[in-house]
Amino acid sequence: MDFVRFYFKVHGLVQGIGYRWFVKEIAENYKAVGWVRNVSDGTVEGEIQGEPDKIEKFFADLKDKHPYANVREISNKKIPLREDYTFYIRHSK
After folding, report:
1. Which of 15, 53, 69, 74 has the fewest Cβ atoms within 10 Å of its own Cβ atom?
2. Nearest C-alpha neighbor of 58 from the set 83, 80, 36, 89
3. Rounded to 5 degrees, what angle do the CA atoms 53, 6, 29 make?
C-alpha cells in the first residue's frame, strides 16, 4: 500500500475554536498519522501521512466540515515519509 505525506498550513479563522482537535479527529478517522499545532501568525500547520485518497478527503474536510472555522486557504507541500505511529497535537509555535 502506498502512502503520501504532506506539510500543510491552514489560513483563516482557525484558532480559538477547537480546530486542532478537529484536525486530529479527522486524521484519526482516515487512519492517518502526523501532527498539528497553532502558529503565532494565526494559522494552523501540520503534517499528515496516509493513503492518497484518504488524504485528499482529509484536506476537503479541513476546508468545509468545522462548524466555526472560516478557512480561506490550505497550502500543502509533499514531503518525505516518516515513521509515525499516531496523530498528535504539538505545542504552539
Report:
1. 53
2. 36
3. 50
pTM: predicted TM-score of the whole model, two decimal places: 0.94
Kindly state the cell numbers that stand for 59.
484536506
Pick the CATH number of 1-50+68-77 from 3.30.70.100, 3.40.50.150, 3.30.70.120, 3.50.50.60: 3.30.70.100
Q: What gap in Å lies between CA 1 and CA 3, rounded to an integer?
A: 7
Q: Active-site residues: which are they?
A: 20, 38
3-state secondary structure of 53: helix
Contact in structure between 6 and 35 (CB atoms under 8 Å): no
The C-alpha cell of 80 is what?
Answer: 518525505
